[in-house]
Every structure is written in structure tokens, then in C-alpha cells.
Amino acid sequence: MRQKISHIENTEEARCSKNTRHAEDFGKWLTKQELADFLGKSARTIERWVSGRTSPPFTKAGNTILFHIDGVKGWLKGREVNVTIKARARNGFRQHNHI
User: Is residue 87 part of a domain?
Assistant: First the structure.
């Protein structure tokens, strides 16, 4: 996943420099389409998440919705699933004791 984040950050930096903005001053922001590409989802899915308030935190600038990369990282971190041994057993995974 770090590779994907790096790719998005590099893409954003390139776009910022083309628009004569300084990426370090402005921060790393993603459009709905960039977020969709990063997550492997459709832009429509991101729109549904936004309207259902289940998306990463976002900022509106007029009609434009932007996602800060740090907010996206935090949102993803908050959705980590820790599979316990008990949960694995419930789902058919058996623990084997090797002596």
C-alpha cells in the first residue's frame, strides 16, 4: 500500500508544480477520481460514500470535494481488521499446535 500512497503523492506533487503551486505549502489533496483510483473503486462509489457520510474526511471548495492524504491514511488505519485466534476458528481456520 505504501507504494500506492507514494504514487499518489508523486502525482499530486507533479500536478501542483505544473499549476505553480508549492506542494509543501498546499499539502497533498486528492480528487474523488484520484481517491477512487488509489482505492481501486469507482468514482461513483466514492460519491456514494460522500453522500452517505462513510467516506474519508473531505473538504469542499465550492462544488469540488477534496480528500487530504493524511485524512485518507487515518481513515484507512481506522478500518484495520485484527483477526484474533477465536475469530479465525469461527471462520474455519484451525490453529495447529506443533511440538
Answer: no
